[in-house]
Amino acid sequence: MARWGEVDFSELVALRDKVERLQNVIDDFCVQVTQEIAQNFMEAVIARTPGGQTGALKNNWVSNITKEGGIYKIEVINPLEYAEFVEFGHRQQPGRYVKAIGKRLKKNWVEGKLMLTIPERDLQRNLDKIIREKVNAFIMEALQ
Known about the structure:
Blueprint: H1 10-48, H2 56-59, E1 62-68, E2 71-77, H3 83-88, E3 89-91, E4 97-98, E5 103-104, E6 109-111, H4 117-142
Antiparallel strand pairs: 1-2, 3-6, 4-5
C-alpha cells in the first residue's frame, strides 16, 4: 500500500480541548454579559428618571435576570404606583391645587418621560453589536 504522507493532528486536538473547556464556562460568560447589559441599562433608566422631591422614583428601580431554556431575560420594574404615569404621561385637572408641590396644575396632559422606553429602544438597537463584540473577545481569549 502506498503511503501518501503524514498528518499532524496535535493542533486540532489542542483546539478540540480548548473548545471543550470553553463549553464548561459558557454559562458563566452568558450570566456575566447579561449582568453587565442589565447594569448599563439600569444606569440609563435611572439617568432618565426624574428625581422629584424625594428621589423615590429613581431609587426604586429593580432588575431581575432569569434564564428560560437557553434565553436570558432582564426584567426591570419600578414598584411605585405612579411610575407608569411618569413613564407614559397622564391627565390632570387644571386649576387644582396640589399641596405636595405647592402649586396649581396648569395643563390637561403631562407628557411621559419615557424613562424606560427610550433606553430599551436604544439597547435593542445596539444589542446585537454589544453581544457580538463580547462573544468575539471571549472566544479569542479562550482559544489562546
